[in-house]
Amino acid sequence: MALATASTDLGALLLGVGLLLLVGGWAWRLRRQQRAAPPDSTTVLPATAIDLSALTAEQAAQLQPFEQAVGDRPRDPIAWYNRATTLDQMGQAQAALASYDRALQLKPDFPEAWNNRGSLLDDLGRHQEALASYERALQLRPDFFEARFNQANTLRQLGRYQEALRAYEQVLTFRPDSGEAWHLHGLTLASLERWQEAVNSYDKALAINSSDPRVWQSRGLALVHLERYAEALASYERALQLGLESASLWAGHALAHHRLGNWMEALNSYDRALQQDPRRSQIWVQRGLVLMDLNLYGLAIQSFDRALQMDPDDAEAHYAKACCCAWEGQVPQALQALEQALRLQPERYRPLLASEPYFDLIRGEPSFTAFLTALSGLGTDTNSTSLTRTAPSSAS
């Protein structure tokens, strides 16, 4: 597409070790307002091959005037640029890229073409080349909002958060009234675990547009990391009131309830999340932990089993299942699950064995005693944290 696009992962919620993503995007179309003077080049470039079979009759008719233009004026960069944007919108990525390249061969000082070329390269997954194109656009026009914005988004997508943050700050000097830019600025701060600053940016976005549910969801996640659970819950509920429905949103809503001790509300929200996407294994894990708090261990085991069907290497699910099985007196099942947890994350779970209250009912069982004896002398990590009270970790 001939668009300056920005992908954002909105409301990313880390539960245990799993990242739940809701991906959204925004786009800015560049208007073709200027016709550049024809450059001095005398080279006539051949037309780029187009897959006509991929075009509808309406698209072929729409493209025809642009084909005619480059045929009549093969040294006119604007004609090639217009052809490129049209092909881009029709999904003819390679032909569009070749047309942008031809426009730039004829007119290297063409910032719109450099920007749109970068956007197309991003769509093709060629992000380093895209960054180079945005940089050329910005060299030509330092205050080019779309190019700086796209540069920031690409840097963020590549995990270069400090550079992305600086780019977003430049974007905001151009347009301090851009709520979407403030939102993305906040998401970048969140990726750097600068949670309070992220909340500040979200608040600025909401001061510009208080009806964007994605910002409310992002704000909720940051507040969870700040352990301000009541405020987080209010943000999530505002996002729901504004009509946003996603597994990540409901999972965040559930997590805030869980941290506040509202276990039935948390369970209901996890169920709503799973209605949205039953393939999220970490939601099944978190649902199981709520059921443990409700002393519904049989149902918790079922939730952990659902998670393990999707992710057999989820150590947290194995350990939680072991705790439930032990509490229910199911010693062989408890030992089998515990063995898996220790195989996957021994440094986390081995230190818990001596003091885990869920194992108290089976400590006198010979098989459990033999299991502990076999593990003795292997050392422990006293910094390990409890399964059911692990705070959300940070992630981009």
Which key phrases capture this entry?
Serine Threonine Protein Phosphatase 5, Tetratricopeptide repeat, single chain, mainly alpha, disordered C terminus, 396 residues, two-stranded antiparallel sheet
Q: How is this structure best described in words?
A:
- 46% of the residues are buried.
- This protein has a domain at 278-396: Tetratricopeptide repeat domain (Serine Threonine Protein Phosphatase 5, Tetratricopeptide repeat).
- The chain contains 19 helices and two strands.
- With 396 residues, the protein is mostly helical.
- The model is unreliable at 1-46 and 379-396 (pLDDT under 50).
- The longest helix has 16 residues, at 57-72.
Topology, pairings included?
Layout: E1 3-15, E2 18-29, H1 57-72, H2 77-89, H3 93-106, H4 111-123, H5 127-140, H6 145-157, H7 161-174, H8 179-191, H9 195-208, H10 213-225, H11 229-241, H12 247-259, H13 263-276, H14 281-293, H15 297-310, H16 315-327, H17 331-344, H18 346-349, H19 366-375
Rounded mean pLDDT score: 85
Q: Could you tell me the number of beta strands?
A: 2
CATH topological fold name of the domain at 278-396? Serine Threonine Protein Phosphatase 5, Tetratricopeptide repeat
Distance between the termini: 26 Å
Strand residue percentage: 5-15%
Q: CATH class of the domain at 278-396, anyone?
A: Mainly Alpha
> Order of strands across the biggest sheet?
1-2
CATH architecture of the domain at 278-396: Alpha Horseshoe
Helix content: 55-70%
Q: Tell me the CATH superfamily of the domain at 278-396.
A: Tetratricopeptide repeat domain
Query: Strand count, sense and closure of the main sheet?
Result: 2 strands, antiparallel
Shape: elongated
Give me the number of helical elements: 19
Radius of gyration (CA) equals: 27 Å
Give the uncertain stretches in residue-range form.
1-46, 379-396
Structural class: mainly alpha
From N to C, what is the helix and strand string? EEHHHHHHHHHHHHHHHHHHH
